[in-house]
Amino acid sequence: MKIGVIGTGNIAQYLLESINAGGKLEGEITSLFGRNQEVGSRLETKYGIKFYTDFQEFINSPVDIVIEAATIEVAIQHMEDVLRSNKDLILSSIGVFKDVKFFREMSDLARVCGQHIYLPSGAIGGLDLLQSANSIGGLKEVGITTRKSYESLGLELKNEEECLFDGMALNAIEKFPKNVNVALLLSIAGLGADQTKVRVIADPLVKRNTHTIEAIGDFGKMSLTIENEPMPNNPKTSYLAALSILSTLRNKGNSVIVGS
Ligand SMILES: NC(=O)C1=CN([C@@H]2O[C@H](COP(=O)(O)OP(=O)(O)OC[C@H]3O[C@@H](n4cnc5c(N)ncnc54)[C@H](OP(=O)(O)O)[C@@H]3O)[C@@H](O)[C@H]2O)C=CC1
Ligand SMILES: O=C([O-])CC(=O)C(=O)O
């Protein structure tokens, strides 16, 4: 499997290190797209890949699947081209699907092009449960409380915790596009971004990016807390998010599917 990656940041570099240097998968990253020539050239030399700043050249390169590890804006800009070029897509910036119409358009396009859009479970879990719980519409309430350090949220340290946001996922992703992609994942798996409750708390005492998910429905109740180690180079992003991409790549095409 030849893999193309969009982005030269934290997740992209972790994938290069674990796949190309560490041999953790049957596959190889061969093409990388970004805008930073200096970083791109360094990665090109280090990992034996080809770095592109021109998206058309990148997407025309011989890759089977593309991993987006950049930003919501970059995902909006290039998703259609990826699918129309007959490549599967693994998405990190799930906030791209805050717009339901865009989600439907891209789902339809993937179907017409015979491709898949994979949304890895990122920095959380429990998505299988939400989908099972809602399979005949019995899911009633879903909420997530995200607790990160001031540093992870890019804020100056304070001595006390502060609730920065209390509302719905739709508005949360507008305010924190780099911190609550997980809330959009929950929305897609469950009740939608206009009905998924989100609280974002800056906490001087937490070292780990902590997400507590609560759900109620005909199935019963769920409460799940994930305490994520942050990535060393970007504390906003949890290590688990990068691992979930590796897991998606590994499970792609399996004949046995685990979870709903
Ligand atoms: N689904 C989930 O659970 C999670 C999702 N995420 C999301 O995953 C994505 C990647 O995360 P991470 O690797 O940590 O982020 P980083 O900030 O480390 O890397 C982002 C990369 O995107 C590049 N980029 C930004 N704008 C452009 C552009 N216009 N054209 C080309 N490249 C661009 C940046 O380039 P440059 O260096 O030049 O700015 C950088 O290389 C983010 O959207 C993040 O919010 C993160 C954690 C969990
Ligand atoms: O990595 C995390 O803990 C969550 C995150 O940044 C996001 O969902 O955007």
TrEMBL record:
Positions that bind NAD(+): A123, N181
Protein's pathway: Cofactor biosynthesis; NAD(+) biosynthesis; iminoaspartate from L-aspartate (dehydrogenase route): step 1/1
Active site residues according to the UniProt entry: H211
Highest taxon listed in the record's lineage: Bacteria
GO biological process: NAD+ biosynthetic process
Keywords assigned: NAD, NADP, Oxidoreductase, Pyridine nucleotide biosynthesis
UniProt domain Aspartate/homoserine dehydrogenase NAD-binding: residue ranges: 7-120
GO molecular function: aspartate dehydrogenase [NAD(P)+] activity; NAD binding; NADP binding; oxidoreductase activity, acting on the CH-NH2 group of donors, NAD or NADP as acceptor
Domain Aspartate dehydrogenase: 159-245
Reactions accelerated catalytically: L-aspartate + NAD(+) + H2O = oxaloacetate + NH4(+) + NADH + H(+); L-aspartate + NADP(+) + H2O = oxaloacetate + NH4(+) + NADPH + H(+)
InterPro entries for the chain: Asp/hSer_DH_NAD-bd, Asp_DH, Asp_DH_arc, Asp_DH_prok, L-Asp_DH, NAD(P)-bd_dom_sf
EC number in record: 1.4.1.21
Main function: Specifically catalyzes the NAD or NADP-dependent dehydrogenation of L-aspartate to iminoaspartate.
Note: The iminoaspartate product is unstable in aqueous solution and can decompose to oxaloacetate and ammonia.
UniProt record similarity statement: Belongs to the L-aspartate dehydrogenase family.
Protein name: L-aspartate dehydrogenase
Organism for this UniProt entry: Sporosarcina newyorkensis
Lineage: Bacteria, Bacillati, Bacillota, Bacilli, Bacillales
Gene: nadX
